[in-house]
Write a structure and sequence with these properties.
about 230 residues; alpha/beta; globular
Length: about 230
């Protein structure tokens, strides 16, 4: 019997803009769980939050620049190309259709996981992928789960990374990660200051992403670009 292929990590978000914290999280989870790769998928029209500041085309371009040359990190444009809201379940269905035998590992933050019952067709997600909840070391998780989610948690939780390699979907695993004090909203606030803000966020984003933002005057609140 052929061995099951290594899991593919699925990491979605607005990435408005993508920053070094996103990239380090993806790399750390990939290494810790021995994932084949982490697929970074910018949302085209995110259903659970306010509309992103940058357009989907710009956010996709920034992700492409951010992962260029990075071993094990990939960019996936399907949510930008697909019309309608960017529902995670539809993305997982699409990925599952492409490779039915490969385990999928959906990477989500603790807050996002707590909101799972509000997601579109959320129970189907467990039939399509494992769920990896990233949490800061020392932060108790879960402190309190909605009752319907608590039932899934009790039935599916595992502490063994190998569980993600032994079936295509269905487990919930909490993966501690190194905290990175980088916030996309704080970066946008700094960039709104123009050239001064560009200098302030240097080092928080890949240089190619920062150059793209500067070149296209993204997140500017005043027209003071050189």
């Amino acid at each position: 019997m052929a061995a099951m292929p290594a899991p593919l990590g699925v990491f979605g978000g607005t990435f408005d803009p993508i920053h070094c914290g996103h990239l380090e999280l993806a790399r750390e989870v990939r290494f810790a769980l021995q994932l084949a790769a982490v697929r970074i998928i910018p949302a085209g029209d995110p259903p659970h939050r306010a509309a992103p500041v940058a357009t989907a085309v710009h956010r996709l371009a920034m992700v492409e620049l951010a992962v260029e040359g990075s071993v094990g990190l990939e960019v996936d444009r399907r949510e930008v190309d697909r019309p309608g809201r960017s529902f995670t379940v539809l993305t997982l269905l699409s990925l599952r259709d492409e490779d039915p035998a490969r385990p999928l590992a959906l990477i989500v933050g603790a807050d996002a996981f707590l909101g799972f019952p509000g997601w579109h067709r959320w129970r189907e997600i467990f039939n399509l992928a494992h769920v990896v909840v990233v949490a800061r070391p020392g932060s108790p998780f879960p402190s309190r789960l909605p009752p319907v989610l608590a039932d899934e948690w009790e039935a599916r939780r595992t502490n063994e990374a190998k569980s993600l390699h032994e079936s295509t979907a269905g487990a919930i695993l909490v993966q501690p990660i190194t905290p990175h004090d980088i916030s996309a909203s704080a970066i946008r606030t700094q960039l709104g200051r123009g050239a001064e803000g560009i200098a302030a966020v240097r080092g928080l984003l890949p240089p190619a992403v920062l150059a793209y933002i500067d070149r296209n005057q993204l997140y500017r609140s005043r027209p003071d670009a050189p």
